[in-house]
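Backbone-to-sequence.
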């Protein structure tokens, strides 16, 4: 949808969007609220709703929900010749190397993020509706 003046092409706009079409694997997809600012440079802001697919196999550069030694974190999975890392998207946070003795389980892949743009709606969410996933520092 254009944010400027109307266009004659608007007469041919799509009639609607089925949000279910954005979720391929409905049975294995869930939502969680992001907490923290470690992923802000990738557009995942504090209070955003993340859509996470547990059926996907994480690949290099995917944003993942990882259980690292008993703590959940949301980071970009980076696989290099010298090892794998959980990378924040904020220069204020250091990369997290995955060491051989770490217990790591990739819990899901973040496939979508929903921002609330209304000032009155930001950070007003029901904690009971979905869990919060802290972006581990």
């Amino acid at each position: 949808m254009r944010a400027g003046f109307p266009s004659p092409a608007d007469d041919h706009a799509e009639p609607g969007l089925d949000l279910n079409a954005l979720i391929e694997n409905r049975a294995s997809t869930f939502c969680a609220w992001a907490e923290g600012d470690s992923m802000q440079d990738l557009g995942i802001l504090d209070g955003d709703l993340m859509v996470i697919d547990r059926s996907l196999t994480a690949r290099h550069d995917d944003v993942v929900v990882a259980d690292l030694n008993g703590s959940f974190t949301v980071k970009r999975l980076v696989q290099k010749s010298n090892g794998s890392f959980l990378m924040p998207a904020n220069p204020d946070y250091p990369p997290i190397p995955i060491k051989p003795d770490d217990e790591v389980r990739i819990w899901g892949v973040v496939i979508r993020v929903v921002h609330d743009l209304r000032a009155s709606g930001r950070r007003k969410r029901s904690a009971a509706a979905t869990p919060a996933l802290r972006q581990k520092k």
